[in-house]
Amino acid sequence: MLVGGWAVLVTVSSQVVGWAVDQVVLVSGLHRAVLVWPVVALATVLLVGAPSLALALLPRSPAVRATGRTWLAAALALGALTLLRAIPPVHEEAYLAALAATAAALALVVGRLSSRRPVAAPGSAAAGPGGEPAATPGPPTPGAAAGGRGRRRLGPVTLLAVAAGLAALLPWAWVGALGGALETLLAALAAAALGGLAGALLDTAFWARFAVGTPPRAARLVLVGGLVAGVTLVPLAGATGQSGAQLPALLLLPPLGFVLAALEAAARRTGRSAGRAPVRWLVGLALAGPLAFADPEEITVLLAAGHDVPYWVAVGAGASFAVAVLLAVGYGVLLARPRAGAPRRAAAGLAAASLLAAVAVVYVVPGHPGLYGERLLVVLREQADLSGIPAGTPGRDGRNTRAAEVYRRLVATADRTQGDLRRELIRLRLHPTPYYLVNAIETDGGPAVRAWLSGRPEVARVLVSQRLRPLPAAEPPARGDQPAPAGPVWNVSLVGADRVWSELGVTGTGVVVGSSDSGVDGRHPALAAGFRGGDDSWYDPWEHRRTPGDRGGHGTHTVGSAVGRNGIGVAPGAQWVGCVNLDRNLGSPAHYLDCLQFMLAPFPTGGNPFTDGRPDRAPDVLTNSWGCPPIEGCDPGALRPATAALAAAGILVVAAAGNTGPYCGSIADPPAPYPDVVTVGAVDRGRQVTHFSSRGPAAGGLAKPDLVAPGAGVLSAFPGGGYATLDGTSMATPQVAGVVALMWSANPALVGDLARTRQLLLDTTTPARVPAGTDTCGNARNLTGAGLVDAYAAVRAAMKGGAPS
Questions:
Q1: Nearest to 134, CA basis, from 149, 116, 121, 123
Q2: Which residues contact 667 (CB under 8 A, 6 or more apart)?
């Protein structure tokens, strides 16, 4: 009992700690810690394996020694399978294939070793050589040897195991959704292989140690054997899936040990052991839930707010646990009671068929039938040549001329280089979506398609474009619960924007700010009047809504800080256009491109970006409070051609540094590290850099951020007409975009002149403070950039034609 409790405690704790470390690394923006899981595997094997080995060798009791051997084998299997988590989570198919192959190999090895040990007859207490129960053949009973060798049809005990496995699977058919076709197939194979490994561990020889007496005492078999079996299943649960998938399995599998013990007790009433088949079916079906119906990358703290994937996975795990406990009690009472008869095949078959039908109905009706696998972003080698584009006349006319030429070259390059590949993908029914801002194509496909695409001469690289799986119920829209401010909020005053309005008479009139975010509440009283309107000022590639809306609130907040009325926005006279590139706080390279393309050449609702783009309607400055980390599919250069094209078109891109401070070099996720992007860090009311603001230097030693703005405790608009206070470099970024809007409103000749505008912004900043004892990452500019943005000084300099004030 002590060793079993220790094994459970160590296994569960180590798995939770390993997942937590992964989440800390993810949220902190650090490089993936590949050694975490090998260390967890080694520690678990040593801490669980050592006392299990002692049990296997030292006691005189055959049952205790058998228990030690089984727990030791399970711990070693956990160690081997945990090492597979070195495979990056983005390559889920490769991981599942390795898991299936390794588990099947381990099952074969354990089965071979187990077959060499003598097996006691059911109910025999006689001891053979060495104190082991003697092997005496028991009388065969037709239909009772569920899963026995030579029998092809499922016996009643195996059918009851199938019914139990389907019952444990039932909640996942409701709360979850399947991935791609190959991913689903491999998940099923991995679950079956883990079931086979469980069957090899909990075989006839294992149960014989607890089937004492003639007939065997069912209560002892269920309680003691079930407890030992439950502990055995804990390491297998810990080895299930990539980091995150094992958490629900750790809750689900242990109670099933008692279910298996009850099934074994029922089988032994017929004079034979149940064999391995019930274990294989029950464990395999139960593990198919978390393996197939949940994406481990979505079991993350990034989605922990509200009722998103982590919530529904917890619901599924809790429901499965409840089902497992009910099955343990029900099967124990019905099958292991003293006067219980042998289970009948017809009744067991009816139960299995009924539950199979229930799983199918739940999956189709309240569930999400279909496949929701990741897509691929194919980046082509040839990108458009944007050199030599004439500057044109100063101001918006010149900017529009450059934007039109950039658009023409980008589309021409994409059409010329993508044709053959597009036709081939269409022929294969892979549903390609072409892009021109980065010469790329998004398409369906798994590892085989990715390998084929990577080998084509026109392809530079293939990225995984993440796709969120649907939820059982939509998250309620976010709502602001704070009242409108009485006057300019503190951050607007800190950057001097209110002085620009009152003393210089500039509010941003005539300038358009583009927002790519979670959306915008177009009905909000602080934002409604600022929407540019028309059929080309809003785009939602996620839900294809025709009017501005925002479920999460993040985009409404950032647009409010840029152009909101009622004292919350830096440039309340400017207009805004919007695009949705985030859904449930996650995006993908393709959706980021959807919005950036729309910002270069807006198109009408339902229009074709390649043919219906209107570069003369492009917004002037873009606020981007997002980043594309590896978990979403981006590599460092994924969006580099996009920002370069926008800069060539004279559109200023302002981007958040990120909230992965205080680590040096944490400005890493596109587009923040790019040289043609104005990257913004965050300070608090005291002009001091916040602890969460990401630090430079960026790749190649580039000093980042470029400057800082208020980002702690910022009040702005939120959906539903209210207001909310948020923290982050996301809140600082739109304020810099608003300052640019004020500058270009004061001096329209600066529109599109990115070099002069950037220089004015940096030359007119005021000092920002670095907290005492803080690592300056080689230079304080890697924390503060040029300093705190000063709207009043920047606008005065712009009004003077470019000379710093």
A1: 121
A2: 657, 658, 673, 679, 694, 695, 696, 697, 698, 704, 705
Task: Say how many C-beta atoms besides its own lie within 10 A of residue 213's C-beta.
Answer: 12
Q: What is the pLDDT of residues 298-330, one digit of tens each?
A: 998 888 777 889 999 999 999 999 999 999 999
Contact 620, 630 (CB under 8 A): no
Q: 158: closest CA among 272, 310, 56, 12?
A: 272
Q: Rg of the chain's alpha carbons, rounded to an integer?
A: 31
Q: Where are the domains of the chain?
A: 91-125+143-364, 375-465, 490-799
Is 517 catalytic? The answer is yes
- Mean pLDDT over 15-33 rounds to 87
Catalytic residue of the set 295, 444, 517, 620: 517
Q: For residues 295 and 23, what is the distance between their CA atoms, to the nearest angstrom?
A: 15
How far are the Cα atoms of 628, 633, 779 from residue 625, in angstroms, in the given order?
A: 11, 18, 25
Packed helices 345-364 and 156-175: angle between N→C axes, nearest 10 degrees: 10
| ω into 118 cis (within 30 of 0) | no
Q: SS3 sequence, 116-157?
A: CCCCCCCCCCCECHHHCECCCCCCCCCCCCCCCCCCCCCCHH
Domain 490-799: CATH superfamily is: Peptidase S8/S53 domain (3.40.50.200)
> In the 8-state DSSP scheme, what is residue 305?
S
From 368, 554, 557, 591, active-site residue: 554
At 203, give phi and psi (nearest 5°).
-95, -170
Instruction: Give the N- to C-terminal CA distance of the chain in Å, as an integer.
Output: 78
Spot the catalytic one: 620, 730, 745, 790: 730
Q: Which residues contact 773 (CB under 8 A, 6 or more apart)?
A: none
> For residue 630, is the peptide bond before it cis, meaning its omega torsion is within 30 degrees of 0?
no
pLDDT tens, residue by residue, 573-590: 999 999 999 888 888 999
Per the DSSP assignment, residues forming a β-bridge with 371 are 178
- 767-778 pLDDT per residue, tens: 999 999 899 999
Strand-pairing partners, residue 769, are 688
**Apex 188 CA angle, 184 and 192, nearest 5:** 170
Helix crossing, 181-201 with 226-238: angle to 10°?
140
The residue among 412, 165, 109 whose CA lies nearest residue 282 is: 165
Q: What residues have CB less than 8 Å from 173, skipping those under 6 apart?
A: 293, 359, 362, 363, 367
